[in-house]
## 1
Amino acid sequence: MSAAERNFRYIGAKRRAKEHPRFVSGRGRYVADIALPGMKHVALVASPHASARIVSIKTDAAIAARGVLYVLTGEEFCANTDSLAIGVDTPKVTRWALARGVVRYAGEWVAAVVADSRALAEDAAELVEVEYETLPHVIDPEEALKPGAPLVHPAHGSNLLYQRKFVWGPVEEAFAAAKHRIAFRAVWGRSATVPIETFGVAAQWNPGTEILDIWASIQMPKYPDQAARALRLPGNAVRVHYDVDVGGSYGVKRGIKHTVLVGYLAKKLGVPLRFIEDRLENMRGGDMQGPDRFFDMQVAFEDDGRIRAMKIRAVDDVGAYAGRSPFQLGKPVSAICGPYAIEAIEYEPTSLMTNKTPQEAVRGFGQSPTNFAIERAIDRVARHLGMDRIELRKKNFVRKEQFPYTIPSGSTYDSGDYHAVLDKALAAADYPALLRARDEARRAGRLAGIGIATCLEPSGGNSAFEVLMNPKHETTTWMDSCLVRVDLSGAVTGVINNSSSGQGHESLVSTVLGEILERDPATIRVVRADSLTALPSNSPVGSRMAIMLGGAAAGAAKQIKQTLIAIAAHNFECSPEDLEYRDGNVSLKGAPGKRLGWDQLVEIAHRKFHKLPPGLEPGLQAKFVWEVPTGGGLPTPEGRIQIYPCYAFEAHVVLVEVDPDTGKPSIGKYVCGHDCGVMINPDIVHGMTYGGIAHGIGAALYEKFSYTEDGQLASGTFMDYLIPSSMEVPALAIVDHCTPSPLTTFGQKGSGEAGYLGAPAAIANAINDALAPLGAAIDTLPMSHLAIWETLAQGTPP
Amino acid sequence: MSETLHTVTVEVNGKPRSAMVPARLSLVDWLREELRLTGTHVGCEHGICGACSVLLDGEPVRSCLMYTVQAHGHRVTTVEGLAKPDGSLSVLQDSFCETHGLQCGYCTSGMLIAASALLDHNPSPTEAQIRDAIGGNLCRCTGYQQIVEAVQLAATRMKAE
Amino acid sequence: MKAAPFEYARAGSLAEACELLARHGEDAKLVAGGQSLVPMLAMRLLRPAWLVDINEIAALKFVAIERDAARIGACTRQCTVERNAPLAAHVPLLSQALAWVGHVQTRNRGTIGGSLAHADPSAELPLAAQVLGARLVLRSAKGARTLAAGQFFTGPMSTAARPDECLEEVHWPVWSEKRTGSAFTEISVRHGDFAIVAAAAQVALDAEGRCTRVAFGLGGVGITPLAFPQIAARLAGTRLEDAAVQEAANAAATACEPGGDLHATAEYRRHLARVLAARALRGAHEKAKLQ
């Protein structure tokens, strides 16, 4: 059922995003645009070593340099602030913005310089003399787990942060009984979202009000709370301004360490400060690298292609500090068997540390690597059986009539029609023609392959992977809220409680409010509270805002509507059931002349207490806080839990050619079938999906934070960390399908991570299809030209 | 030791702007920090991402790879200078809004600069020519699809006008 | 990423530029388009005391096509050369190489001389200069001297130019043979990136289709761009049959000394050298046959 079939007025219709005019005219307001009177600037001194003891730090020359106000080192900073919050239960893995005593990765911040300008701060940073005594380091994740490996945090006693073997269903029985078994390793390279805007923060302490004002390029749940805690301030002494435009995030804009550092300095020095990471700081020391994971996969299946059971061992290297990154092994629990009805799953997530730049949340929060591993497994099963990959997928898909469908790990998938979406994608790609094109290319001596990937996007979650992976973190809600005000002039304003990084939340909320109130969204304004005036929010993470903010806005608008009806009922001395609401006006059913218009109702609410029904508060506003649908539960002892309510589905079909002489891949046709339920704004959903595919192409072919053996980041600039351009990303086509979610206000599901969740798997499968005639296979991302060529060179029969 | 200051006069968005600047001040830092023309963005500061693109004498360049002193005597156009004389959005800017050719907005000014230079030279670009023209501008949000569509739409509309 | 402080002088003429270089010697660095230099300054990999700006010297910006060579002023923008149709007809390899250089924004600012003086061994223009045997005129306060590309490039990012010399102009040989074709090809990870390996070739044929003159070379496989005149000479008199071309490409690949880095091993580079040298030679041959 599409949006149109549900008789929506604004939802699902083409509508320009509210945010666009300010951006295309250069009037966005990003953190680097914040200029506070008397503002000073920060630059950093970074460790050149992957692991070393800090013998001494001499700051005299730097302090004496022109324009320098202060030089801060870890001794002072760590003594006066608290360690940042840690996700899993590893209290000895402490973390501050500045190193104290030891450095644990190359690029870790050792000292901060405050000066009149950023250039002067950089000049002085060069004058800080740090003497190091290098210590052994470990870069390879498997080495890190071996006895005797150098310990990144000796106080913790090992490099292991988290490990648990979940067994859901009769796994061993299925493996023993199944006719076929395969095992292989799939490797996901260390890449991240790498927004074009780096992280930045501006802060100002007002000793008169005792409030620390913060403007930041932020996308982080519980950010004000964490900043206040680390700064040893009460929560109501930190005011985060959410009306800062964020220049892309897709998960990583969590600069909590930056914030505590700059907040501390601003308060201590009594001057406003701004710190904008430069690209070198961002890549080496911005702590935003992504999952770095290998999967040891085992699959048990039958002759007919039915998959009985899967064993997944996932080993993830978070780098030198933890934060929330180990939880990226937790989200995949919610879709651990993908879109397939597999009855027994073993999952062994292992999170460990090495001397690399720390990991941060990346679009999909660990789901895309898992989807890649599952989809490689599906293709390998097909190859093993000599079976068509599409047929194999269809045989194993959860069927339409099986929803709601509970998977072994305890998640109930809300709705879907995987067969229909895959068929639509194949039709849109003209699959028979695609096969012909591939086979013609092969006959002409070229390497060509078709990639299929069918993946899930869990969305709208309640962060219950926290309690799953750390019983001390009893998180069972991840609410979001909206406040709706109708002012005396009758204008509608929605107040939201987070910053945005391109998701179009102002467009989302105005559309939803317009839909419920039957008012033109173009007339509805959406503004952002600051953290002291905000209602509870958990920020736009985990593909949740269409569901959670959309649901909250709808809830608040419905209350406004009910209030207007109640006012009319009181004045007409009738029951609300006798009234009908249309376009903001309320009239008596069957007597359209008996009517109170929007303006009249608003005026009563604001001015005419004598015309208000008893008990109704004057003014016209409503707040709504929405709990995650299906949220609230704790895990069972076996670790079964519902984390996400909604499951969007995507089916990728892509044709790739590989130059057999050079290994260079190029992408031809690309189609993505997508079902995220009811789309509130199709352009926005499509845009995020296109962007997710491009990002997935990057992860599949180009992007990697590479480290040298001595622990140096070898891809610390945009000359070596290779983001795909318009020349690498082909024309992309999306074909929509709509299976509404029964759990959400309008039937919507999340879509912010769409595209990225299946593109790397699809490209990997396409390249493997291209290499198949040579008997070669590759399961490591990124599949660089070099890696493909080396695989070809090995796979080509002499 | 303080730095030598150089007197520069640059025509920015049609208006002469004069300043005393140190030699190492990049053009983008001057535009943003001194002139407060913050529509031009800094992404990498080493000439790869294209977010800082401006028109120098009508042609797109990276303003992180130029010092302000080097712009003396030249014309610079930033995203703030792309609007119609009455301040309304140009056809190209409006087309970006229409096709949803942006999300976070951070690369957008550079994209608009690159695309406007393309359309100046070539009113009927092919898709390949559009992709080449924006090939030096990285975007992480859009996958470029709706940006390409925006430029195509703008070309069509400009021809009709 | 702000450059360390430096003093700046805008040279109004070549003589003034030479004078400034003579005065500051190794403490000075010339800046033309700055597309390679400015990032290095921003990362503080270089910290010259003086920056001598030659962008405003009109005398360094020209294209003059003469009988034997096209003369291009050192400070001529790459985009100007790219759009010069007569030049593309006389020195086709140069415009073919430019199609692989950076992006519109960098070519609008980048100069012909700047790219050569930067001498990145995997850059396109130095390879084109090496293959064609371009001649570079270097000017100092003491006078001018001319070096062949082969003498000019001495190593990665290093040239025979002395600290007091400014590149004045570059002479790109024009081949007089009617049936001349050229080709440039490369493998880079992304479009516009520096090449992993690049190959360039130019071929002249007689009326019977016999090869009268061949030049080819490789970039990214040594400390400078490489040309292979001896190997090329063996192709003279042939009809550039596949076997001969592949043999020449193999010989060139064997002769080069590639290094390894993040994106390519030495072995991969040598393999690409073999593949791309052959492709460039075949491409040039195809073009020549059309003449």
## 2
Amino acid sequence: MPQKEPTFDITKHQLVPKHIILSEKEKKEVLEKYGVDETQLPKILNTDPVVVAIGAKPGQLLKIIRKSPTAKESIVYRIVVENNE
Amino acid sequence: MAVDTSEIRKEIKKIVGKKFLPLKIIDELVEKSVKENLTKEQIRELVKRTIEIYERNLIDPSEACGIVGAQSIGEPGTQMTMRTFHYAGVAEINVTLGLPRLIEIVDARSIPSTPMMNIYLKDKYRKNAELAKKVANQIELTELNEIAEIETDLTDLTITVKPDKDTLNKKGLTIEELFEIIKKMKKISAEIRGDEIFIALDEPSYKNLLDISEKLKLLKVKGVEGINRVIIRNEPGEGYVIYSEGSNLEEVLKIEGVDPYRTITNDVQAVGRVLGIEAARNMIIQEAYNTLSEQGLNVDKRHIMLVADIMTVDGSIKAIGRHGVSGEKASVLSRAAFEITVNHLLDAGRRGEKDTLEGVSENIIVGQPVNLGTGAIQLVMKREKMKRD
């Protein structure tokens, strides 16, 4: 059997929730709504496979729509940071 | 009916307005409203009450949810079997369960002690035993000594590989393919002689002969590195599913016939590497929850979710413990209170660290009220009001 290069989209894997890149304006709104600054948000590395796949850059805010067993859907935010390792 | 629910849903969302209700509760409300055939007035009342109850049940600000979570997992954890080697779910595959597995998960171990994968197949393959077998053959690691006899001739300093025809067929290999694989080895020249492969050394010597024959034995002929054994099972409603002992998510997902969107491994770090931090978080929750409930322990998912959240806030998977979450706390006293006290205090002293006494353990150490629960608020009295009374 011939082996093919991986041609699948990891963002469609059942374990991977939806990641959406927010615009600068939306980012500001989120920070204002929660009264936090960037450093207080959960982080996601710029080397994360999903970040690479959707092409997010450090400093951008991702909106993640998780499937939650308790609330069916829950929205969290992660800020893209540079991977220093 | 379908139109009805969307209408009611809109109505409910309008009533909820700026307040918040989780989607799950809204779904339930919609369902109930349709079933009971409620009037608009009744729906309004229902939603209003629901919001009231929902808000009353929210965790209070400054509630020590971490401690509650730790207790809730720790207490049933004491009843876990200390050492269990079970055959879980799949016959013949040995999986670490119980406390050792739970420890493994929160330690964010880079390789689990019994890695395994559930490999789901694409539609075409999962209904067909032949095709499923073929995929399994692609996955299971086959070394040369499993399919062939390797004879070394000490007088001529040559090696003869005699493949077993039946096993070769079973693995779907031909002698030519085998030859191609062997040919790629360094420092040898090989040729096919009938059913055998004859190997001569470029630099004949005893040592080389032994080295090469050892290498030949372990030569990977087919399969994926790390996958030692596979088992195919026919699951009702799903078709053929491959279970593997050993795990290599990166490579298995590339194999044709494997459904890359559903295939999973119990190796949390690999999930993080291949599918990202959010997938790893999901995997931690799933694995920890399954480990606990498999032992008959009922721990609320929210506690486990909190653990998974803490382990993944930084973007990489951190262990709960000295090398991870606890070792990276900002406060010296808090770190010292956990483990290796003297070293932490000594290092901090040498560096001239400051402790701002914001956490819980620091404040307990110095004998102050903690900044938590009732300790988090200060009372302010309005003097005018007092006078009026």
